[in-house]
Specification:
The chain is mainly α. It has a single domain, classed as MetI-like fold (Orthogonal Bundle), CATH 1.10.3720.10. 85% of the residues lie in helices and 0% in strands. It contains ten helices and no strands. Helix 2 packs across helix 10 and helix 5 packs across helix 8. The two termini are 49 Å apart.
Length: 277
């Protein structure tokens, strides 16, 4: 028994350095993010300190002081939740419609010829114009904000899915037809796995656009939400409050990117080999 314990000691000792190296690699992977944040804060502080007094630029200390006060107010979370609700409803509508239309345009030339012009027109119209149009049609209502978010991000999502379907491996389609798979099986087992990376990229880009248009529409015609807060504090020329709300937006987007989208992307696309160049 003692000899078996002695033999097991080197195994345990050898696994410890491997675990410590893995921890160091994990910590080291986050160091570039830390350095970039510290560099941005330093540049911000220097800019605020060196600019002449006629420029209204809040310092990091002023901004984070205001941010601490905002986080203690319940109304802050009400405005955030209202904006997120509008954003997710509009994004969900745009994602579903973009996924359907983009897939049809990639698979059938008829749909590509019919809708490609209108998708391009949708891309060229500025988001501010869509915001004005929807507010004039629907008035100062929730529907106007949601429709503006959906109609602005819909062309971008459609183009991404359209390009993904056009780039699928046609040999796999031919093989599926040889094995006489049904159209539903081909769509779910052959086409969908190949366009999933494009679905995630379109979602990432679409959510960013949804944030921008949601804030713009709320600034123009809403009495609540994050965009309304920007308009309110802009009217009072409070740069520290504008920066504080901007920081809140950045934190929410960072959590959505690293805590939701990337986690789902790693799990769903775990079958893809990593490219090391």
């Amino acid at each position: 028994m003692q000899s078996e314990k002695v033999q097991q000691l080197p195994v345990i000792a050898s696994s410890a350095p491997r675990a410590s190296r893995a921890v160091r690699r994990r910590v080291g992977s986050y160091l570039p993010y830390l350095y970039s944040v510290l560099g941005a804060l330093l540049a911000w502080w220097l800019l605020a300190a060196l600019l002449p007094s006629q420029f209204i630029l809040a310092t990091p200390l002023q901004t984070f002081t205001v941010l601490g006060g905002l986080l203690q107010k319940p109304d802050t979370y009400v405005h955030i939740v209202l904006t997120l609700m509008r954003l997710f409803i509009g994004f969900f509508i745009a994602e579903i419609l973009g996924l359907i239309l983009g897939t049809l345009m990639g698979l059938r030339q008829y749909f590509e010829r019919t809708f490609s012009l209108w998708v391009v027109i949708g891309l060229t119209i500025p988001s501010l114009v869509w915001a004005i149009i929807t507010l004039m049609i629907f008035g100062l209502s929730e529907a106007g904000v949601i429709v503006a978010i959906a109609i602005t991000s819909f062309p971008v999502i459609t183009v991404n899915i359209w390009g993904g379907v056009k780039s699928i491996n046609t040999k796999l389609l031919d093989m599926a037809k040889v094995f006489r798979l049904s159209r539903a099986d081909i769509l779910l087992r052959v086409i969908l796995p190949q366009i999933l990376p494009y679905v995630f990229s379109s979602s990432r880009y679409g959510i960013g656009i949804c944030w921008k248009i949601a804030v713009v529409v709320e600034m123009l015609g809403s009495s609540n939400g994050v965009g309304y807060q920007f308009a309110y504090w802009f009217g009072l020329l409070s740069m520290s409050h504008v920066f504080a709300w901007t920081f809140i937006l950045v934190v929410i987007m960072t959590v959505m990117e690293f805590g939701v989208i990337r986690v789902l992307e790693r799990r769903v696309l775990a079958w893809r080999p990593e490219i090391n160049f």
